[in-house]
Amino acid sequence: MKFVTKFLKNSPELFFFYLFILSIPLGTKITFLSRDSYFTKHFLYYTTFFVYLSDILLITTLILWIVNILYNKYTQESREKKLSTDNPQLKINSFFNNKSLLIIYSLLFSFVFWSFFSSFWAKNSQIGFYQSLKLIESILLLIFVIHRVNTVKILFFTIICLISTGFTQAIIGIWQYFIQHSIGFKWLGESVLNPDLAGVAKIVVNGEKIIRIYGTFPHPNVLAGFLFLSIICSFWLLFLIKTNYFRNFLFNEIKKKWLFLAIFVIIYIQIFAFILTFSRIAWMGMVLLSVFSLLFFHKNVSRETFANFRLNKPKIVLLFIILFFVLYSLFFIYPQISGRITLDIKEQAFSDRLLFNNIAFSMIKENFFQGVGIGNFTLNMADFSPVKLEFWQYQPVHNIYLLIFSELGIIGFVLFVFIILNILKMAYLSQKSLSNLSFNKILNKPINNQSKMFHVKHLANNSLNKAKNDELKQEKIDEIGACCSISLPFLLIFIGFLFIGLFDHYFWTIQQGQLIFWLVAGLILEAGLKSTQ
């Protein structure tokens, strides 16, 4: 209790930020009907307003952050000079001196402005304004991550929250699989699940209906996307165990064998749940990224700069044990998986995607410049469909690029593409600069202003002995190495999200998908800025 009280007093915005991370998967929400919530005579998620628990926690986080900045600026003027150099959260202006970040911010603000502007010609302008507000919320999350999640310690806690949340959702999902119905966590937003209920995602094996696991997410595909994120973060945690900084910072008193065992359990359960989502696109994305990592990651980590992150015997053994248990599990559920790894063009999921794509192309052709308005794709589907749609077919096209083009026209689509390209460019340049760093350059390159001041003060102090100098240098190397390791996994996750976005829409239309997409984008930019300062 004392720790929580002290944390709330010193960093209240971070306390609520961690709560926000933990709340992302929860479907706990207040629903507000719009005039088109039942325009198909059935409830439609995409034309309804929601206020989620995660919205409340994120808004609280942002308000506390702004209040904290204003408080330090206007009520502690006597300490302003000291805080502006020693407190990283107040060094916002230094980030705006970064040309790459200025370009990204310009694109983001233009993108938000155009989305709001598109609401004026939308069929339902209220839905347009609502979706624009959701976009602003996501962009503010990205900005908060860049400017406040600015130390290795905060990054560690953020990643641990993501892993903990993924592990919890995996447990809930596996539980749902074995009992084949919902658990009863309706207060957490769990969907009502039963193999015989219409609208519940399921597979059919030898005439038997088997539900796909949801966790507390609105659909198994969204759960798969979140597990995609948490699994890669878990593997990153595994590779970082060897570093002195990580070991001293978090798990100094935990025996390594117990730590390896805990990570094995966490990774295996998440992978098993990931399989039980039966999300083919997420499976494919994970396989492609795994192959990419095997081909290129070892080359990067074998450099002198990344010496702490090489594979060693315990890690190799653990990876093979994880692989063995995964294959062992696949053996028992292979009949269920086999139907998902074969592609039948007559399958409804495939035919519906083709239909939605054709509708999107027709919509783009007729509204090439301005689009139909953000959030209004489903309301315009009937006008561009070659066939009469069933009520359950009123859903966004399963491709975020076609969806954004349809709703925001060529202007919105180009802005979005340039945002993505600039994020990827910044991540690439940071990886390139990090891979070229030599041992001596690391010793002389500060990770941030706080580390720089600490380093300079100690070097300027003639009374500091050689042992202290060596200790400082080693601590500096470990911290820089930890930051270097962070940018690559989030780059891989983001690329995976962009791939999944070719075949699904939830990164643009569903609360949980929107939040993790822009959260990862913010973490990429933050790590990139840290490594290039």
Produce a short descriptive summary.
This protein is about 70% helix and about 5% strand. It has about 525 residues and is mainly alpha-helical. Strand 3 and strand 4 form a beta hairpin.
Describe the structure.
With 533 residues, the protein is mainly alpha-helical. Helix content is 69%, strand content 3%. The protein has 21 helices and 4 strands. The protein has helices at residues 2-10, 12-23, 53-74, 80-86, 92-96, 99-118, 125-148, 152-179, 220-240, 244-249, 256-276, 280-301, 313-341, 348-366, 377-384, 400-435, 439-444, 449-460, 466-500, 506-509, 511-532; strands spanning 29-32, 49-52, 202-205, 208-211. The strands form 2 sheets. Strands 1-2 form a two-stranded antiparallel sheet. The protein has a two-stranded antiparallel ribbon with strand order 3-4. Helix 12 runs antiparallel to helix 19. It starts with a helix and ends with a helix.
Label this structure with key terms.
two-stranded antiparallel ribbon, 3% strand, mainly alpha, 533 residues
Please give the largest β-sheet: 2 strands, antiparallel
Spatial order of strands in the largest sheet: 1-2
* Secondary structure category: mainly alpha
Count of helical segments? 21
Identify low-pLDDT runs.
Answer: 83-96, 301-308, 437-460
Report the β-strand fraction as a percent range: under 5%
Task: Tell me the distance between the termini.
Answer: 37 Å
Oligomer: single chain
The helicity comes to: 55-70%
Report the radius of gyration as a whole number of Å.
Answer: 24 Å
* Mean of pLDDT: 80
